[in-house]
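Progress note, project year one: complex with N-acetyl-L-glutamyl 5-phosphate.
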Amino acid sequence: MIKVGIVGGTGYTGVELLRILVNHPDVELKVITSRSEDGLPVADMFPNLRGHTDLRFSVPDVQTLGECDVVFFATPHGVAHSLAEEILNTGARVIDLSADFRLQDAVEWEKWYGQPHGAKGILPQAVYGLPEVNRAQIKEARLIAVPGCYPTSVQLGFLPLLENNLLPEQMLIADCKSGVSGAGRGASVGSLLCEASESMMAYAVKGHRHLPEIRQGMERAAGKAVNLTFVPHLTPMIRGIHSTLYAQAPGLAEDLQALYEARYANEPFVDVMPAGSHPATRSVKGSNVCRIAVHHHAHTGQVIVLSVIDNLVKGASGQAVQNMNIMFGLAEDAGLKQVALLP
Ligand SMILES: NC(=O)C1=CN([C@@H]2O[C@H](COP(=O)(O)OP(=O)(O)OC[C@H]3O[C@@H](n4cnc5c(N)ncnc54)[C@H](OP(=O)(O)O)[C@@H]3O)[C@@H](O)[C@H]2O)C=CC1
Ligand SMILES: CC(=O)N[C@@H](CCC(=O)OP(=O)(O)O)C(=O)O
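Model obtained:
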């Protein structure tokens, strides 16, 4: 059994990790931390876990965490910077759900996150945990940066086009919608029912911190600079990301449907839907699947890719567990066979 610790158990990604891991056949949950809820039984805070775990929250302690085989960080940005190196030194591996190790350029990270990068020394060993791109490196990794939610849906949607060099120089567009759980469990006015329901709005149009992360992944895939406009929107749903991606590809001869199907044929968590489909966020709610549909308007040369995920599963905790499975040589879908909830 893999001994698992979680730092930050009271946020949405922390409890989502628990929901997945309590049913994982190869995992023994050892530690779950919260400084504010020290001593509280986890199931008292999250009744969905009653009968599934007897764990209590405890304060983060490197020695205890170091007795685990792997430690997940489900914490705000900056926390993994301060603790990851010490935990790696105990021999445990680290899977970080925050953005602390996602950007390879520490200066760029400091610019977007507005704080000093606290772990430049271990940054070079971090592997970007997008299995569909980096599976071989993930296998050998000791420190994983789990991709952000928007970056997962946008990169998976654009990858086949970029890897095959099918897009001429142009401004690509990612028009993305997120559910409110993406903003986390912490109280904020924008997440109140009266503010977020029956309404929809764009935000961070000037520049969102996921832009450099998405661009970094897209440029690796394309092998050249990529221009991207990324506009996130908050929508009145709890879970889900819907990305509508636009690219101009005039005179395209390729059969895009066949290209996408071939690219993801062996990917357990990417489902390319039949031509003409319109995937709904509901079709992935609670599951680790990214559903993609590709459309091409031959008369205008416009390619439109639709990509949906559950922000808390393929966009965070599910993808984190997928990384763990790969790192420890387990079945990649172990603990991740949940079918989406309908309706
Ligand atoms: N919500 C989403 O859809 C997604 C979120 N993420 C990322 O995952 C991470 C977790 O997000 P979310 O689940 O929303 O939770 P929060 O960001 O609200 O983090 C909450 C957890 O972190 C703990 N924590 C906070 N500060 C510290 C600290 N200094 N040391 C140790 N523990 C600390 C808190 O417990 P306590 O203070 O009691 O110790 C709490 O359990 C974030 O980086 C977020 O950006 C990634 C993808 C998607
Ligand atoms: C709706 C909403 O507020 N979404 C968050 C992104 C989700 C998230 O937590 O992003 P990370 O994966 O980088 O941690 C935001 O825009 O900041």
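The chain has eleven helices and 14 strands.
The chain has a mean pLDDT of 97.
No further modelling is planned for this target in the current period.
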